[in-house]
Write a structure and sequence with these properties.
2 copies of one chain form a homodimer.
Chain A (H helix, E strand, L loop, with lengths): L5 H17 L5 H8 L5 H13 L3 E2 L8 E2 L1 H11 L7 H12 L4 H16 L2 E6 L8 E8 L4 E8 L4 E7 L6 H15 L4 H14 L6 H14 L8 E5 L13 H13 L1 H12 L4 E4 L11 E10 L2 E11 L4 H20 L4
Antiparallel strand pairs in A: 1-2, 3-7, 3-10, 4-5, 5-6, 8-9, 9-10
Helix pairs in contact in A: 1-3, 1-4, 2-3, 5-6, 5-12, 6-12, 7-9, 8-9
Chain B binds a DNA duplex through helix 3.
DNA sequence: TTTGGCACTCGATAGCCTAGAGTGCTAATC
DNA sequence: GATTAGCACTCTAGGCTATCGAGTGCCAAA
């Protein structure tokens, strides 16, 4: 396929820009005016025919103008887009949200709200729960009735998870405390995935010579750590309703599929996981995500790091026709700030 | 206004039932057939005219049949509805969900999902966080860097809340433990609202003669308890997307208002709080709720109790045209089962 | 009190027309 | 050879009209 001429590129760029801004197919006449080039509509038509041959633009029907195709957006984003840095007000607003000391869960919630409010799209944040990245801090056992024990798990980054487990008998508070102390001394500061591994090993090795208290601690923590955990990473979605009201998502059936995708989380988590490996902002346009429900949407993501290590991803979802030049730097900055805020909690 | 004749009642009943089932206005002709009464359409028309005078039915336009008004639904529910008990499969399903031991948060989530799945509407559950109904169990202090302390609050019913607070200095783990012990001994088993009150009193009274450790505990717990808490009761909404696809909510603007109401939670919480006082199932039809966004919806709620005391409410939201005779007993049963499951956690 | 008959209303659907926007092609022009 | 003007053509959106069918309200008869 022939390379794009400079002029064709320029026209594609203005076409995409205008279409993003106005949502209307662009005809040769208007494009001639808006481009600033001194060309007649007829010439524009010729160029458009070329762009259509290359699969970069298409027209909804004969007498409508042209709109970008998915590929057109791709080219636009990869080589034509001029990203505007955030303006002063936005930067101030974003930074303001991250100053207050808060626990990771709240930080993540704040971030997601921020994303959806500023972009007026749906905000996504993956809550990091990867076991190999979480460091164990301490365990608490709180006795409940009927042999049930509330286990509270604290990680170094200040996250708290809890769970009720069943045991065969009631234990005294003193016993529970002793058990917790034993366990905390032994595993404090170890990565959770490692704790799991060590637990399994320990249980096999010393099951006979163990003291009662060790047994208790191990039994409970085994239930907490090893048995089918709730889930891995979790996903927070906010501002879904921002997506209603985009004419391209006006079909209620499509909208429902989209919302179901948000609720199920699985597909989105998968998508966001994929974008964790690469550094920096990643953009999935339409079908590139590989999910039917997202075929008319774009997803802009950026991983965030704590102490230099990628722990999660955040981003936004919106119609393919979204103001990328605003969205991209914003998602980027937000990821950096969230990473910074999370880093300052751990020690 | 004249009382309803038995026949008029019967016709209203079948009208509402058929309309709920089919979603189409009913004309005199079809109603004559469906009612089973041996009456001509003309007679039905006379009765319908009466019902219309009484404000119980209306017609969308001249040549459409009749549909129930809000008042018509009210009369139907209050005096005509024959509630069907749950069928065997549903009961089994509901009970199955509540057997596994789980913490309150998970129970509430399960319940909400259950509500929305079975009814195919949006499920609501108020998470009880009323301070006067929660009994303090214990506090944990976990030191983080930079003078920050992670405070974990456990209540008797097994709920865990946590929060990071700022202090002026770093405390040693031993100090923190001591402080927690001091506090837990003193306030264990006291209602949270009472702890708050006592804290304020204590701080004023003995601020000079206090030992350092008491000071520390009081200072931290003050920040946890007294300073602007997160919120009061919280609300869980699931299955919102079930509401897409009801033709009466087909307008995307309405839908958006509805979803925003779900997200904001405030109005719904208010509504559910109202229904906490009365025992048993409560039904808000259309505008009765008092909220614009819900004007074409009905809300069916039931309070649930722990140890005889009402602690929260649950329910469903759907279009006014919902199968009440299925929904009502289901909401009722679910409330009872959730209450039971929560009761078995506390001691 | 019930019913049949009848004129009337209204929404939905289909068909038709027009205006407007935009295209592709061809031939003339720079 | 690139650009442009001109023109025939296509397609949508919107307005207008006619028709069909469902259903009503009312009146007079049973």
């Amino acid at each position: 396929m022939a390379d794009l001429t400079t002029r064709a590129e320029f026209l594609l760029k203005t076409l995409v820009e205008r279409y993003i801004a106005e949502g209307q197919p662009l005809g040769s006449r208007t494009l001639a005016k808006r481009s600033g080039l001194d060309l007649s509509p007829a010439t524009i038509r010729n160029v458009m025919a070329d762009l259509e041959d290359m699969g970069l633009v298409t027209s909804p029907h004969t007498s409508a103008g042209r709109i970008p195709t998915q590929l057109g957006y791709r080219v636009f984003i990869d080589s034509l887009l001029t990203v505007r840095p955030l303006d002063a007000e936005q930067i101030r607003k974003v930074e303001g949200e991250f100053t207050a000391g808060a626990d990771p869960q709240k930080l993540v919630e704040t971030t997601s709200h921020l994303l959806s409010e500023v972009t007026e799209l749906a905000g996504l944040v993956v809550v990091p729960r990867r076991e190999d990245q979480l460091v164990f801090r301490q365990l608490d056992f709180v006795g409940l009735s009927g042999g049930r024990v509330l286990v509270i798990l604290v990680t170094e980054d200040g996250q708290v998870q809890n769970r009720i487990i069943d045991t065969e008998q009631d234990y005294s508070p003193a016993k529970l405390l002793q058990a917790a102390n034993y366990f905390n001394d032994k595993y404090g500061g170890v990565a959770i995935s490692e704790v799991k591994r060590m637990l399994l090993a320990e249980m096999q090795r010393t099951s006979e010579e163990m003291q009662r208290i060790m047994e208790l601690a191990l039994e409970m923590s085994r239930k907490m750590f090893v048995e089918p955990a709730d889930e891995g990473n979790d996903l927070l979605v906010t501002g879904e309703s921002n997506l209603m009201g985009f004419p391209e998502l006006g079909d209620i059936q499509k909208l429902r599929k989209l919302f179901d995708t948000f609720t199920a989380k699985r597909d989105l988590l998968h998508l966001l996981d994929r974008s964790m490996r690469a550094g920096g902002v990643k953009i999935f346009i339409g079908r590139e995500s590989g999910y039917e429900a997202l075929k008319e949407c774009s997803v802009v993501t950026a991983p965030y790091t704590v102490d230099g290590q990628v722990v999660g991803t955040l981003g936004v979802v919106g119609p393919t026709r979204m103001p990328y030049e605003r969205i991209i730097p914003f998602v980027d900055v937000t990821a950096k700030l969230l990473g910074g805020a999370l880093s300052s909690i751990g020690r």
